[in-house]
Amino acid sequence: MALTRDFKQTVVERVERDPQFAKALLDEAATLFLNNETEIARLILRDLVNATIGFEELATKTDKPSKSLHRMLSPKGNPSMDNLAAIFGAVRSRLNVGIEARSIQLTS
Q1: Is residue 103 part of a domain?
Q2: Where in the sequence is the domain holding 35, given as residue range(s)?
Q3: Is residue 105 included in any domain, yes or no?
Q4: Is the pLDDT reported for residue 81 higher than 80?
Q5: Summary mean pLDDT of the chain
């Protein structure tokens, strides 16, 4: 059964009309990276870049070639921590949000 809408276009439209959704995607990507679920995190971050800043503007802001950024955020990508920080920083700036890391106490 074929999908009736393009998933990427659906994400773009939702991000444009719902800033909280964009922030939730950014939060989810960061959480997934921290939980070592890097492939899914890269794919979410790629969709978020496409829906917000775009790869050409991201290339300008990070001083990295657009093609390299596409590869970094591909399923087999392997971005360095410096590159991830630059990408997250550019997207955070576009969304005008911060990222806060907190630890939680687990009880047994």
Answers
A1: no
A2: 8-94
A3: no
A4: yes
A5: 87
Instruction: Determine what percent of the chain is predicted with pLDDT higher than 70.
Output: 86
pLDDT at 10: 79
How far is the CA of 21 from the CAs of 17, 27, 71, 80, 95, in angstroms?
9, 10, 25, 26, 11
pTM of the model: 0.80
User: Which tokens in the block code for residue 91?
Assistant: 């997207």
Domains of the chain: total: 1
Report the distance separating Cα 75 and Cα 38, nearest Å: 9
- Kindly report, residue by residue over 31-58, the tens digit of the pLDDT: 999 999 999 999 999 999 999 999 999 9
Closest to 25 measured CA to CA, from 3, 5, 51, 57: 51
Pick the closest to residue 63 from 89, 42, 45 (CA basis): 89
CA 71 from centre of chain: 14
- Note the Cα 20 to chain centre separation in Å: 14
In the chain, alpha helices (H):
7-17, 19-34, 38-51, 55-62, 66-72, 81-95
